[in-house]
Amino acid sequence: MTKNWQLPRRTFLRGLGTTIALPLLDAMLPASAGAAAAGEGAAAAAFPRRMGFVYIPNGVIMEHWTPRIVGANYDLPATLQPIAPVKNDILVLSGFAHDKAFANGDGAGDHARANATFLTGVQARKTAGADIRLSVSVDQIAANKLARYTKLPSLELSCDRARQSGSCDSGYSCAYQYNLSWRNETVPMSPENDPRLVFERMFGGGSAAEARQNRALRKAYNKSILDFALEDAKKLQTNLGATDRRKLDEYLEAIRELEMSIERAEKFNGEQAVAYRKPEGIPKSNRDHIRLMFDLMALAFQTDTTRVSTFLIAHDGSNRNYKDELAISDGHHNLSHHKGDQEWIAKIQKIDTYHIQQFAYFIQRLKSIKEGEGTLLDNCMIMLGSGISDGNRHRHDNLPILMAGRGGGTLRPGRHVKVDKVPLTNVFLSMLDRMGTPIPRFGDSTGRFNGLA
């Protein structure tokens, strides 16, 4: 059947302060691209590439992280076992460094520098005052150039409440430690830790005041965001083919389930406000909180609401315990200074594995979302890592780095790549090339890293 109706790519469902971007449907593809969808070149051209960064704090136990085998068919040490189902979609990158996270004459403060340097590659000015100075981060380089294509230029997430001032680590401002993304050398991109507010930002419309008013109206009517967009959806479905109708139904159901998860978290926290004192919408469970944020990132990528996102699972130096998740009541940061104690090392390794379990959940979620003949993961580059390798000694070389996805066919995952003290910023330059946002130099880069493909 000849295709005679095409839907604009930037089509939204609207209603009462709601703006819902749609996933890429067959009806949005030009007839020539649809006919050739099985071809890798056509598919790569049809779908946007997405770039994400996920940060884990305090380093890891490297002996349980680093594969022994370099290249394809690499082995999975204990900590990386959770990625087994998506092993062929993962690049394990060993030997990369952030020299500017070392003291370099600035004394103590490795946790602040680890966070600050991770996406910037520059040395943070040591100050606890207002005269902070860093640099634009790699995600914002891409976001600034891609902003015209999406509702949100970028999406910044965290499981910590954001902090922009105060002294946090040996004379460094809290701004360095609680922000992963930086607009420029003095302005961090404050991350959001409340899933409800992230959801409203993604799907709400109008000003902040209008968003609050519309949310109150939906609550009064006991209706969800989708209830007010269904009329638009029904009109749209009359012109869609069977495959697109099924894809739209599945997508709207995913939004509904995510909204319901957030509402359950709000209800629970409302009932337990005195006991837990948690902000509205944030689950009691750290695991549920992390996964809700990952679900939101996946949805933002699926709908092309943004193509760039960062997620600070916890700030470096975080001393939260994992009593509920892993029966570990010791603080994470305290444990990271294990001094060779095998019991403490075993506890840290359990925490490392826990973080990889959550990352594996996210990668499998991306892989479950169809995009043309492939998956959403195929068009993503998702880096997980830490600005510290050995937390006991505060090392910033041989960093623990994973890269998931195929970057629209420009990455070759399923390998362990090992180098020796290559700046991680070289990888960032290569990622920016793949996003179509190249720059000649970034941070302390010495050139592009050509081992991703």
CATH fold type of the domain at 24-31 and 45-193 and 282-434? Alkaline Phosphatase, subunit A
What would the average pLDDT be, to the nearest integer?
A: 86
- Which sheet architecture does the biggest sheet show? 8 strands, mixed
Strand pairing plus helix content: what structural class? Answer: alpha/beta
Give the termini separation: 38 Å
The backbone outline, from C-alpha atoms, is: globular
Task: Count the DSSP helices.
Answer: 15
CATH class of the domain at 24-31 and 45-193 and 282-434: Alpha Beta
Helicity level, as a percent range? 25-40%
Mind telling me which CATH architecture of the domain at 24-31 and 45-193 and 282-434 this is?
3-Layer(aba) Sandwich
Sequence stretches where pLDDT stays below 50 over 5 or more residues: 32-44, 270-280
Percent range for β-strand residues:
5-15%
- The H-and-E topology, N to C, reads as EEHHEEEHHEEEHHHHHHHEHHHEEEEEH
Q: Looking across the biggest beta sheet, what order are the strands in?
A: 4-14-5-13-12-3-9-6
Radius of gyration: 22 Å
